[in-house]
Design brief:
The complex is a heterodimer of chains A (568) and B (198). Chain A has eleven helices and 17 strands. By secondary structure, chain A is an alpha/beta fold. In chain A, helix 1 packs parallel to helix 7 and helix 1 runs parallel beside helix 11. Chain A is globular, with a radius of gyration of 24 Å. The radius of gyration of chain B is 18 Å and the shape is globular. In chain B, helix 2 crosses helix 8, helix 4 packs across helix 8 and helix 6 crosses helix 8. Chain B has 198 residues and is an all-alpha fold. Classes of the chains: A alpha/beta (568), B mainly alpha (198). At the A-B interface, helix 6, strand 10, helix 9 and strand 13 of A face helix 1, helix 2, helix 6, helix 8 and helix 9 of B. Strand 10 of chain A pairs antiparallel with strand 1 of chain B, so a sheet runs across the interface.
Amino acid sequence: MKGFSIIKKETYDAIVVGSGVSGGWAAKELTEKGLKTLLLERGRAQEHGDYPTQSKRVWELPNRGRMTPDEIENVYPVQYRSGAISEATKHFHVKDSEQPYVEDKPFIWVRGDQVGGRSLIWGRGVPRWSPMDFEAPAKDGMGIDWPIRYDDIAPWYDYVERFIGVNGEPMKSRAIKDGVFQKPMELNAGEKYFRKCIEDSFPGRTMTIFPMAILTEALNGRPACHYCGNCPRGCLTGSYFSTQSTTLPAAQATGNLTLRPDSVVHSVIFDEQTDRAVGVRVIDHHSKEMIEFYSKVVFLCASALGSTQILLNSKSPRFPDGLANSSGTLGHYLMDHHFRVGGSGILPGMEDKYYIGNRPAPTYIPRFRNVGGDTDRDDYIRGFHYGGGASRIGWGRGSSELGMGAELKEKLRTPGPWRMSINAFGEMLPNYDNHVYLDSEKTDQWGIPLLHVSAAFGENELAMRKDMKDSAGEMLEAAGATDISTYDAISRTVPGDAIHEMGTARMGRDPKDSVLNGWNQAHDVPNLFVTDGACMTSSACQNPSITYMALTARACDYAVESMKRGEL
Amino acid sequence: MDRRAAVKRISAVVGVAITGPTMAGILSGCQPTDGPLKTLSSSQFNVLEVMSEHIIPETDTPGAKTAQVGAYIDAMLTTFYDAEEQKAFLDGLASVDAWAEEQYGKGFIKCDHGQQFALLNTLDRAAFLDEEEKSDNERAAHAQAGVENSKAFFRRLKILTVSGFYTSEVGATQELSVNPSGQYRGDVPFEEIGRAWS
């Protein structure tokens, strides 16, 4: 590092890089097991409850919720492309103008930039994976075999769900595994009708409420959801899972945690004599000083691309192409989910029915394709699920329909008809060509080489999308919907858009074709663990965060037991 | 409701391709202020305030004027419309004036209340009524240059007025009701609530 003098700092038992969904869990587990742990976060400090827009009404926001063209163009161009940012949530997102990366092919990288990371802005949907998801690559040959099966992770799902609180409705599906659920949030009248129509017309399909990491019953001092509807702005009561509301307080309560925000991790320090990671190099966000911290074990939880960028930048004579990369697969097999395809329509009748409160959960149609028997397709492998919901059309219709004056006003006092919409999320297959790598010259303001991203959807995804669209139309028709419109907005979506980026340091059985083993432990470096989305061998179609949490807790348990046995 | 859901829901409601300024018109705007106008002249502001009050008038609750929709439109034009879009909007406003002159021999603001409403109502029908539901006479009337030139402007104005009103404190809390925190019930008789949520 030019002009940087390295400051050597204290030693810990464990270092955790990243304080989002995975890092918060690693910090909690390691500290509770007695390890003095340093939790590093590249973003700013963020206190729980310091959520400035949380209770604001739409008319209290200077632009009524809207990002201005100026900030979209000059500050948040990438974050805005995802649609996941608004005037009320922008302070939780990275400023793209200050933290660039290179899109060899279009890729949307949505990043948090504070303690808690994306646990403050995530969608909170937490369906479990199922046995078929872990078995799929071995069965159809697309990708390498997972080194674990559902039964290996099942007790850890239980463990995580009991601690964070998940509400949902048992589905009793042969393909989908239920979690440990608090009482479900109710479907509304339109959704109840739609569910019945689906069940009557398509045996084996159902629609339920999306399993969500939001409390419907008090848990560990956290009250149940109060249905304000402003989750993406931070939850003052801590009723949804975030690092701040749930894992960080637990870690802090042990007295074993040191949290250091504004700490951009440059690389992992590797000792060739012992074949072990001995710590990390941090660039202070503001002073730009390089500081070294040392530990017995290192957990990378910096997000899929964040962790991989750190590994790629951790070069040594033994690992000239990135730490723990003897397989050459580090940076490869980047996945996301593919979406922006589905349909909507107007449900008949029920005009005497309405709802009260802002339910923060969509509906969920679990995967029903390629789950055995007559559900198997010959045009694509794997599957998809739908999120969605019904609601009565609001005042917005008044701007596009005939009518003026007192008559218009009177009409809009009554809600419009019920509109049901279902939107699919599909599995993306791993592909070696979908990859990231470091720029050979350009660096960011902390001297870290810029990350290049090159990824695209493949033939299987495109074939699946046709069914994702057609099946939506078919179910809407079965419900007697009118004005049905189905869509496939493939031209408006790219990898990263679903904000479920996965892979690039995948788990596997063989050190020759994977970076991590079945314990999220680097094949090449026994005291180095990666437990965020980077570890994923395949993507399934479920929202991935709950699986990261379970894998993290499991890996922490394994790491501490191994340390006790003197193996790390 | 998160932004993505809001955009989707509103896209669906409007049912048309949503352009930047249109979307802005639905989701945004500025808090009403008593500050100076940034884009509109005071006479343009006055005309727009009168027009929006025709679209959303005072009834048993306040209308667009009390909700300061005029200031909202000025803020919208300033922050979200580029120069070309501003010009198109203001040219449209001028064309209504020219058409009023043709019809009644005076500018829009000088017309009486009934004449003003009739002009805007003609634009509303021209813009939003299905062609097959129009009589031959009406179709002919809508083909006049005055109507043709003002129709696109009226569509914009209606979006700005409706969004500006219903996202204002007046529109959201006095005309409609804010969906409350504290409970969620998914299946409630509408008559128990009696008013759409804002």
